Amino acid sequence: MKRVKNGLSVVAILMVASRACGASSPDGEPIVGRQSFVINGPAGGASGAMAGGPIMGNGDVGVMLSGPAEELIFYIGKNDSWGSLSQSVMAVGQMRIMTPALQGATLRTTVDMQHAELRGEYAKATAALASRSWVDANRNLLCVELSNTGTVQLAMTLQHVSGTSFLFEPDAANPSPDSRKIAVATRILGNADASGFTLEPGKTTVVAAVILSDLDCKGKDPLAEAKSLAAALTPGKIAEYGAMHRQWWQAFWSKSFIEIPDKILEQHWYAALYIMASCSRAGKVAPGLWGNWVTTDKPGWHGDFHLNYNFQAPYFGVYAANHADVSLPFYQAINEFVPRGRKIAAKKGWKGVHFPVSIGPWGMCPEGDDSDWGQRSNAAYAALNFIWYYQYTQDQEWLRNSGYNFLREVVDFWEDYLKLENGRYIIYNDSIHEGSGADMNGVLSLGLVRTLFKNMLMMSADLGVDENRRAKWQDICGKLSAYPTQERNGRTVFRYTEKGMDWCNDNTLGIQHIFPAGAIGLDSEPQLLEISRNMIHAMGRWSDGNGFATWYSACARVGHDPKAILAGLRTESDKHSMPNRLLSYGGGGIENCAGFNAINEMLLQSHDGVLRFFPCWPKDQDARFGSLRTVGAFLVSAEMQNGVVSGVRIVSEKGRDCVVVNPWPGKKATLVRKGGRPGSSAETKQGERFTLETAVNETIELSPEK
Asked: What is the dihedral of CA 343, 345, 351, 354, to 10 degrees?
């Protein structure tokens, strides 16, 4: 099938207008609804396989809008559009709406995150057109509603890359039974001609495209299914689907909110969630490096699942933001690779699983089984997301059915790979950077392994399994080598490895044992925290092409200067944001959504299950948040005004004990309990920190004793 290659000419005006969780400011205005902005003039810029045009998606199908008013181009991508021979994710195609009368017209595109819609306004003299587009949240359907708002008739042409209906096979030149088949069927409602139509002043029509793969159709012919669904569309059905689409997004935004003084950063926080919800959905194939907005057949790094941070990173911010379900495709992809990972480990003489850097869905391995660049940490790095999902949801059924078996495979590897010498466990021949050599005791792997075994002790106890293995796991936790250190500029900092690479002026691997590995936090020993803060000063990676996803959260996790963190986040947002609010560094795409998780860490931390309110937030900046999710499956809300915390509300989903650092030092805290048990009661707690016993679905409100 011949398809038009990208060579994008993105011209758009972007306005983000969205509303989260029904939360309103004191003046009653929806929090996210007022965070809109307009870019006058061309907007664009490319990053790898992506461009900067407005984007929309339903977690499977992704669509990016491009082109001038006379040639609106809808680039169509899909997460399962992988070629088995190319071992790469590939673009599906394009849909173009041509309106010659609008050549040279002014244009304005609104990205409405609240409703997940793009709205366009195009005008030239008496010719004018308005558009409203969305990718249905509940089905693989692209709808483009076109309204003639001018006073003259508009002649329009619909061009597809291969007609109005086509079947795309990523490896069409070299067919393989394992290749995906993607079908697109397009229809102009109320118009007999499939390609050309006229639109009278005051009239509206809808161009709809159904996008299905053979996976969606479960053995049926995807092209026939797409044509059948397109033929059944009516204006009434489109209206019904549109209403259901808006309901889905309303429910999504109702899960949590933040409100901070810097409205640009606040907007990026919401945009990161919008992007992730648009490209990742439970039951669908996980997105690769560029999400589901791949616009070329040869995306950078195959558009694959890079496991030395890139594939894990996009999800770092969804757990605390109370959208853990967005991460579910990740676990499916990792579990699908376990059989191959087991064979790779066995081939090298190891137990458990060993993962290379580059994998894809269904056990694909784009760069081959040996593409680990000398790194032993890839599977342990992938384990972090599994651990986080359980920490934040306490979903034992998920852990038993989807999480624990993989984690045990990773533990099997490290039990076998670690060497016990002179009373300590050592990691040999493990490159901290890709190809950095036979490093010994890299700080990242030491952090990953600590976190893995520490959590396996708790998770196995929760499931009531592997009791006979816990003594060994406890022994590893107690005897794992300490983090290597060195002196730089008169301060003790971490050495990247005990033997091998000592320092690197690139990337942020020197702090990733802090975050995302989570091996160091505000409850760590004072000396370790001091070294961590020294490391941040010494590294100074405030702008790093591979570090935005981890640097700022690590700074917050150990209590670095909050104003410096906010200033750095804002500078990077201003310098690297594309019009669609994705940050472009060239080294990755959707991974940079994770950088704004730092705001979660600044407002609320639950590292090691200890709740800290505004632990790294400037005391002279008011802020508030609602229903952020914490370790232990608590939904937490609070605000700070003039440096004083109030409005603390904790909802316990699973009835776990909740450890709280007293938000009002030196004062008693008054508790009011609601739900979860008969009646309600009030009590007081005192001390620097205290433990709350909770019941399932109980709400606890905290306030300082008067």
From this structure: -110
- Collapsing DSSP to helix, strand or coil, 336 comes out as helix
pLDDT in tens, 266-284: 999 999 999 999 999 999 9
Whole-number pLDDT of residue 512: 98
> If DSSP codes are grouped into helix, strand and coil, which group holds residue 653?
coil
Q: Tell me the helix, strand and coil percentages in the chain, rounded to 5.
A: 30, 25, 45
| φ, ψ dihedrals at 651, nearest 5° | -105, 125
Spatial contact of 605 and 663, defined as CB atoms under 8 Å apart: no
pLDDT digits over 552-595, tens only?
A: 999 999 999 999 999 999 999 999 988 888 898 876 699 999 99
Is the CB of residue 494 less than 8 Å from the CB of residue 428? no
Residue of 235, 241, 366 lying closest to 298 (CA atoms): 366
Smallest CA-to-CA distance from 519 within 387, 334, 395, 325 is with 387
Q: How far apart are CA 35 and CA 24, in angstroms?
A: 12
Q: Does pTM top 0.85 for this prediction?
A: yes
* Cα separation of the two ends of the chain: 74
In order of their start, the domains of the chain are: 46-258 (2.70.98.50), 304-598 (1.50.10.10), 623-704 (2.60.40.1180)
Closest to 272 in 3D by CA, of 637, 76, 548: 548
DSSP 467: G
- Cβ atoms within 10 Å of 680's Cβ, excluding its own: 13
Give the strand pairing for 610-613 and 658-661. parallel
Calpha distance 363→666 (Å, rounded)? 55
Element (H, E) at 44: none
Strand order from edge to edge, sheet including 644-652:
257-259, 623-630, 634-641, 644-652, 698-704, 669-674, 681-685
Residues 6+ apart with CB under 8 A from 551: 508, 511, 541, 542, 544, 595
CA distance 385 to 45: 31
pLDDT band at 8 (very low <50, low <70, confident <90, very high): very low
Per DSSP (E only), the strands in 170-328 are 182-188, 196-199, 204-213, 257-259, 305-306
Enumerate long-range contacts of 122-130, CB under 8 Å, 24 or more apart: 122/69, 123/149, 123/150, 124/69, 126/150, 126/151, 126/152, 127/101, 127/102, 127/152, 127/154, 129/69, 129/99, 129/102, 129/154, 129/199
